[in-house]
Every structure is written in C-alpha cells, then in structure tokens.
Amino acid sequence: MNCPFCNTKDAKVIDSRGIDSGAIIRRRRECLHCKKRFTSYERVERSERLVVIKKDGSRVPFELQKILRGIRSACGKRPIPEEVKQRVADEIDDAIHREFEREVHSLAIGRRVAMALRNVDAVAYVRFASVYHDFQSVSEFQAEISDLSEKPPTKAHEPLLFDHRTPPTV
Ligand SMILES: [Zn+2]
After folding, report:
1. Burial of residue 31 (number of CB atoms within 10 Å: 0-12, 13-18, 19+)
2. Distance, CA 1 to ligand 1 centroid (Å)?
3. Residue 165 Cα to ligand 1 middle (Å)
4. What pLDDT score does 25 carry?
5. Would the pTM of this model clear 0.70, i.e. be above it?
6. Is the pLDDT of residue 77 over 70?
7. Distance from the alpha carbon of residue 10 to the mean position of ligand 1, in angstroms
C-alpha cells in the first residue's frame, strides 16, 4: 500500500481491526518515510477468509481477535504495552495470510505466536508455549526453558515476526 502523502511503499501497520463481521479490515498505517499516518479499508474477499483446523479436526473461521486474546493472556500482567501485543498479532495475521490460502492448522498459528512471543518476553513465551506448543513431557518443557536461558532468541531460527529491539511508536 503506497503512502498517500509521499507515495512510497514503506508503511507499517500500527493498528488493524475487522469491521462488518471481519469482512472489512481497517488498518491504520504509518509511513516509514514521511512518518504520516493514514487509514486503509480493505475488503476481505471470501477466498481470503481462512479456515482454522483445530486439533480435534473441527474447522472455525480465522479470527485475529483470538490471536490477540491468546497473546494477552500469555502476557498477563507482564509490562508489555498493548500496542506491542497488537503489533505481534498483526504480524502473525499478515504472515499467516501470506503463507496459507484456505486452511491453516491451529498448531501452525500457535507455533508462530510462540516464536513471536519468544522475542518479546520470555515469561509470556513459556506461558504460551506450555499451552499451545504441545510439550509431550515435563522434561521436554524443562529442556525448552533451559534452552531459552542459555541461548537468547536469535533471528536465525525462523523469519522474525516481531523485532523487539525496535521501540514501538505511538
Ligand atoms: Zn509517506
């Protein structure tokens, strides 16, 4: 999406919400070049509507709000600004829609949320991972925690969805 002020392409999404039952996505963007903000309304085509396949095999519509809720509950009372949580959810939303056309397994979403949280807050990550990561045993869970404390998260594992070193702008 080009900036309406300077016409460059580098605008980041700073807020995103579905309206009209998710059929239209309202995105607030900030141009990285001229720093001006603008809003776009994008109609979500039927074919773009993703279906999530849950662990029990049932299918539900993909909802950004569910991702955000999962992130919020994992963060709990950790000192993580709401805008950071929203940005993480947005990045995941974008990545999922880029990668999957019609269906996405809930575990694939959970994995991405876990990876993103890992770069935001270790406690939130472990909380989230313990629920969604499907650890098979206590030792596997402990191995992940010790792995986390020995090796700080790096960019090497997977494309980074959220870079915690970039201070969020308001
Ligand atoms: Zn601009």
Report:
1. buried
2. 11
3. 23
4. 83
5. no
6. yes
7. 8
Residue 43: strand pairing partners: 24
What is the distance, to the nearest Å, from the Cα of residue 15 to the centroid of all Cα atoms in its chain?
12
DSSP 14-69: EEEEEETTTTEEEEEEEETTT--EEEEEEE--GGG--EEE-TTS-EEE--HHHHHH
Residue ranges of domains in the chain: 8-44, 46-165
Answer whether residue 154 shows pLDDT above 60.
Answer: no
Structure tokens at 146: 């010790």
134 CA distance to ligand 1 middle (Å):
43
Rounded to whole angstroms, the Cα distance separating 154 from 119 reads 8
Label residue 20 left, alpha or beta by phi (over 0 means left) and psi (-120 to 50 means alpha). Answer: left
Is residue 153 predicted with pLDDT exceeding 70? no
**pLDDT digit string, tens, across residues 25-58:** 888 999 999 999 999 888 766 445 789 999 899 9
